């Protein structure tokens, strides 16, 4: 394949009399690419010539490359003899797999030239050698890459420069793992700048330990570690473990960045009708400290009576536990049975424990209806009400913790006679006051009431007529 374009522009301006551009692409045994533009005395462009398995006339003297910088036959790492070493030969006495030369012209630097060579001198090992010359700066690169599969590879890299700003870069990368169980990766990096050495270390590891013969059930572990020469980020550690079973998960996580540390433990239980989440964590840092914190959420729909609850605990200024809780349960059985209850717990003295419940049940065939109501506000107020209607009989019982009102009991009947709806009842208040009450309602008299009250052997009688 050949493609070539050349163009020139002539102008009557001093210094800009001729400008031009060229684009050339050739590919046969060699790959040749040239792109350049020139305006006045400024030239910008790139020229690349490369060849796979180059022939003798394309072979360059090894002197254009850098001397052996130490990456060599051991990959820059600590691999075993199976991966690195043996009598397989060396990059210098093996035929190149690919070789290239290039020239680069920019607006800010003069022509930069470079050479690069890749040698596949073993089934899984590739060696790359390169050199870049930029004005008075020489940059040399040597890399050894071992690749067996995506989870088993190793790379050693060495870059040297004649510029004191970055005179040396050396790194080793190793990845060793199995598809279904363990994977470990490690990167070591060293940079020399102005005779100062900066070291970076990074490693990560993944492990899976199966539990039984069930697929995907087991213990998963993930860890990460980073150290740098910078005080603001001298270390970063991360560990995460989770045990996964069919309906249950438990986990532990630790994060440590410089002087900031977070620990978290949690459990998760989940199935079709149940969901339970619990987590505990600790935060320690120079600016913020949380000695403990507990948070849980539970939803239980596994039985007829369903429930939901949320719990939060954290320390106050005295490092005592502040407890907040919100819970509710309910059961809806149609028109014949309704039950609902709830509780609220807070750290506030006036509202440290609030409970309430409501229950309604009925048997329509027997014309029987009952209701129960309960309310409690901390230790100050407690109220309980029980009411029942059976046929024509009415019963009501109320108990409270108030000094002014302890107990009220009412027994009575509700029936229809002579076209009127009549309620007759006896009401007892704290067993000291008794009231006989008769209330009737008709079309002509919406409300008629007679009440007789007896208190310590004294009685009072009064009538209220035509009260609308």
UniProtKB/TrEMBL annotation:
Region annotation Disordered: where it falls in the sequence: 75-94
Superkingdom, natural source: Eukaryota
Protein name in the entry: Uncharacterized protein
Taxonomic source organism: Graphocephala atropunctata
């Amino acid at each position: 394949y050949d493609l070539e374009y050349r163009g020139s522009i002539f102008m009557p301006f001093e210094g800009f009399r001729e400008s031009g551009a060229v684009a050339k692409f050739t590919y046969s045994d060699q790959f040749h690419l040239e792109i350049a533009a020139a305006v006045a005395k400024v030239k910008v462009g790139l020229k690349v010539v490369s060849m796979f398995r180059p022939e003798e006339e394309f072979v360059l003297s090894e002197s254009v490359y850098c001397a052996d910088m130490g990456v060599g036959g051991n990959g820059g790492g600590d691999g075993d003899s199976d991966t690195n070493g043996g009598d397989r030969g060396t990059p210098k006495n093996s035929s190149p797999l690919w070789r290239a030369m290039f020239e680069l012209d920019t607006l800010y630097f003069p022509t930069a030239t470079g050479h690069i060579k890749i040698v596949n001198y073993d089934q899984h090992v590739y060696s790359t050698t390169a050199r870049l010359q930029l004005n008075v700066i020489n940059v040399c690169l040597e890399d050894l890459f071992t690749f067996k599969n995506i989870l088993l590879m190793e790379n050693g890299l060495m870059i040297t420069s004649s510029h004191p700003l970055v005179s040396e870069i050396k790194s080793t990368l190793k990845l060793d793992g199995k598809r279904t169980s363990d994977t470990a990766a490690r990167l070591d990096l060293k940079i020399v700048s102005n005779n100062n050495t900066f070291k970076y270390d990074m490693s990560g590891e993944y492990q899976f330990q199966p539990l039984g013969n069930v697929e995907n059930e087991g213990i998963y572990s993930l860890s990460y570690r980073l150290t740098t020469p910078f005080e603001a980020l001298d270390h970063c550690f991360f560990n995460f473990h989770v045990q996964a079973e069919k309906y249950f998960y438990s986990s532990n996580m630790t994060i440590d960045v410089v002087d900031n540390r977070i620990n978290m433990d949690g459990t998760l239980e989940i199935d079709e009708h149940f969901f339970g989440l619990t987590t505990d964590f600790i935060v320690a840092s120079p600016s913020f400290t949380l000695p403990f914190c507990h948070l849980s959420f539970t939803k239980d729909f596994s039985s007829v009576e369903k429930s939901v609850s949320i719990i939060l605990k954290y320390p106050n200024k005295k490092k005592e536990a502040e407890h907040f809780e919100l819970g509710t349960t309910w059961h809806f059985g149609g028109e014949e049975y309704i039950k609902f209850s709830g509780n609220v717990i807070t750290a506030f003295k006036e509202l440290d424990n609030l409970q309430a419940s409501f229950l309604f049940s009925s048997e329509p065939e027997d014309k029987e209806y009952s209701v129960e109501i309960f309310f409690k506000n901390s230790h100050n107020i407690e109220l309980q009400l029980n009411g029942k209607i059976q046929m024509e009989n009415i019963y009501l019982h109320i108990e409270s913790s108030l000094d002014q009102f302890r107990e009220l009991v009412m027994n009575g009947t509700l029936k229809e006679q002579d076209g009127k709806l009549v309620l007759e009842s006896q009401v007892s208040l704290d067993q000291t006051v008794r009231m006989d009450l008769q209330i009737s309602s008709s079309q002509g008299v919406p409300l008629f009431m007679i009440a007789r009250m007896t208190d310590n052997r004294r009685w009072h009688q009064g009538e209220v007529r035509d009260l609308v």
